[in-house]
Amino acid sequence: HVELLESGGGLVQPVGSLSLSCTTSFRFFSGNTVGWYRQVPGNQRALVATITSGGLTEYSDSVKGRFTVSRDNAKNTVDLQMSGLKPEDTAVYYCYLELRNGGSVSIDYWGKGTLVTVSS
Hints:
Blueprint: E1 4-7, E2 10-12, E3 18-24, E4 33-39, E5 46-51, E6 57-59, E7 67-72, E8 77-82, E9 91-100, E10 106-110, E11 114-118
């Protein structure tokens, strides 16, 4: 049973900055890949950024250089620092955890999402 709770969404103007945070009580947080995805109406959920248990990161090309994902294993949190925000960044942002069971089997867990609106 994995619960993920996002916070930090809101309204921000273009080129502004915003930080999101996700926390979980999952006991094996530190050993799994976590990160962020986002979704806009009419589109599928898409990668924003992930970070592995070893600290390796992956970013969508659309956010690379503007967003930074980080994790704090002592606090069981994963954060997303966003800067240079654009209207096209508007979406519901979902916290993500990949629970792996062997090398080829995984279960994806999602938070309920937090809305980020980038608008003037």
